[in-house]
Amino acid sequence: MDTASAPVGSLQHCCCQLPEMGDTWSQLPWPGPPHLAVLLVSLLLAAGVMHSDAGTSCPVLCTCHNQVVDCSSQRLFSVPPDLPMDTRNLSLAHNRIAAVPPGYLTCYMELRVLDLRNNSLMELPPGLFLHAKRLAHLDLSYNNLSHVPADMFQEAHGLVHIDLSHNPWLRRVHPQAFQGLVQLRDLDLSYGGLAFLSLEALEGLPGLVTLQIGGNPWVCGCTMEPLLKWLRNRIQRCTADSQLAECRGPPEVEGAPLFSLTEESFKACHLTLTLDDYLFIAFVGFVVSIASVATNFLLGITANCCHRWSKASEEEEI
């Protein structure tokens, strides 16, 4: 087949192809019968390809052992292009990586642990974990992530631990960011820039055991009440860093521990006006407007009288 016309797929770099064997093998010089030569060479080639498929080649500046690839603390500005196919534990921590290319994890079906902490990541490409169905532990702490979109963990249903802590620019978590992560047990959102977290983002996590949210500038207004109620109901089996979570606003609760707020704190959020209240407000407004008109009328009359009196006084003096 002509290689120039061969289709190039997105997974082409993931696959190894055995060379085609024809009659030329039987023409090689060999001290034994031709069919034995063909058999032995074929076995050697197959063993070499299997050896390559097992992923024993290791990227430059990385160490590889027992399906663990360690590329940490190497001052890398980009991810290594080729990894062993059977990688289970990949550490890219403590580098200067600013971006991960789309489809980077497509070929590594065995990946269980991915450590990307302490890099310069601002975002991750959509669908990065589409094929990482066995990924269980993900560390994205100490980066520059600004938001967690809805499709960030798409198809990564095996995740058990996610660390998003110490992302100081993290302002928003999409309500469906963790959708489908029914096995998630540990979620760390501490020391970011979160002022608000939607209850919807956590409601779909039935297995959640540990939730870290301290160190964020929480605004403890009316929108915070649903989340606090949910946390109180789960506090027995969901450990939270209650001592570190504090309110940064509004001013009347600034510095107060998040979990010290009670239903009384949100009493004003539930005040509703009845028809009588609206009628009373309308009546008071009407009375105030009439009083204002009457006052202005009296002031006008008084000013006019003072002007006439002053003018009469001047004429008498003349």
Automatic annotation (TrEMBL):
UniProt cross-references to InterPro entries, sorted A to Z: Cys-rich_flank_reg_C (IPR000483), KCNMA1_auxiliary (IPR051432), Leu-rich_rpt (IPR001611), Leu-rich_rpt_typical-subtyp (IPR003591), LRR_dom_sf (IPR032675), LRRNT (IPR000372)
Topology within the bilayer: Single-pass membrane protein
First-listed, main subcellular location of the protein, grouped into a coarse class: membrane
One function term, GO molecular function aspect: transmembrane transporter binding
Transmembrane segments: 278-301
PROSITE patterns per record: LRR
Residue span, LRRNT domain: 57-89
Keywords carried by this UniProt record: Cell membrane, Disulfide bond, Ion channel, Ion transport, Leucine-rich repeat, Membrane, Repeat, Signal, Transmembrane, Transmembrane helix, Transport
Pfam families: LRR_8, LRRNT
Keyword Repeat on entry: yes
An example Gene Ontology CC term for this record: voltage-gated potassium channel complex
Residue ranges constituting the LRRCT domain according to the UniProt record: 216-270
Subcellular location: Cell membrane
Oligomeric form and interacting partners: Interacts with KCNMA1.
Function field: Auxiliary protein of the large-conductance, voltage and calcium-activated potassium channel (BK alpha). Modulates gating properties by producing a marked shift in the BK channel's voltage dependence of activation in the hyperpolarizing direction, and in the absence of calcium.
Protein name: Leucine-rich repeat-containing protein 55
Organism of this sequence: Nyctereutes procyonoides (Raccoon dog)
Taxonomic classification: Eukaryota, Metazoa, Chordata, Craniata, Vertebrata
